[in-house]
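Page 42, continued from yesterday. The earlier attempt failed because a stray header line got pasted into the input along with the sequence. Redoing it now with the clean sequence only.
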Amino acid sequence: MAAAAGIVRGPDGALLPVVGTFAGSQVVSSTCGQEVVYEGGIPLEGPIDVVLDPGHGGPESGSVGSNGLVERDVNLLVALQVETALEEMGHSVVLTRRRDLHMPIRQRANIVRALQPRAFVSIHHNGGAVRRSDTPGTETFHQVDDAESRRLAGLLFEEVYAAFADYWVPWVRTYHQGASARLRPPRTDTYGVLRLTRGTPAAIVEALYLSNPPEAQLIAIPEVQQVEGHAIAAAIDRFLNSDDPGSGFKDPFYDPHTTGTGTARGCVDQKYSEPTNIRTGFTAEEFASLTAAANHMGRSVDWLLKFGVYTLKFLGELPGAAPITPLEAEQRPDAYGPIAVTVEWDQAEQAVLVRMAEAYGLNRTETQKLGATLLVFLANLPAEITVPSDGPD
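This time it went through. Structure tokens are written below.
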């Protein structure tokens, strides 16, 4: 099978979307959603029918049952059941995570955009409802104004609701029991995992309320997790192989408030690449100017070289900035003078360095020199600009 474009498996099995190759180095989006240089990885074979997203992970636990059951763990257990069932049906499936892992929503969306599956389902278990109900409080959410996403959510509600209706427990529910779209003004999806994956039919399924003790006790049973997994798989299979419309639809509603989870705050990546040292040479005059600029800023010389590259990036991204074009041969900085400065770059910093090297048509040593030259120039600009007396008022 052909390799799915733009994604590799990392050393821990995590999916890493390939951002591109810059100055000969592969840049990927890390588990934390940060661009890093990573030369390894096994290309993922495709095409992929379904991406399953076990919601939450790492420090973001989600709902917690009175029996100690944690949503992030239940989501993964059920997702693995869905995967097994779908593969037995002949579908190709990948999971955004296969272990307890802190992964921001933007990275989950990056994976979906890289793979472009036929369906994407984010698996969750709810919290907060207290209204007693004779029926399961299953909720599903779809992308607003997207007919296929709506159909997927309707099928998920239909299958999961029916699977749990066979059990008698004191259920709880809210008004949003059913399939709907949760919005924020002006008219966009509140949930980032839906908002950032438009173009792929996507849905969220909240099978039951983990915050309700009887429901937490029920979903703690492995056989019940399997029942839920098979129900979700059946819904996805129907979505892919039929025109069934689904059911349980409700009108979209406005509720922009979220729990604030799903961010990259506090996310720590594993080491994908070793730090690399880049050595740049200066003449005695250049080094004297460099040292003076560093002293003026209260920084070290190696800091100034690195910050210079980040300044190149910042200026290139300013609104209205002209596109960066490769330098002509005579414009390339001489980076091989007799006084050498060595700078260490970690995996994320290397991504910035190689991006700038690619943009300016330079190697990494020359890019480091170009950034240093820019900062020396900026450090020597006058603090105030004097307007001539005969100038405009």
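Notes: The radius of gyration is 26 Å.
Reminder to self: strip header lines before submitting.
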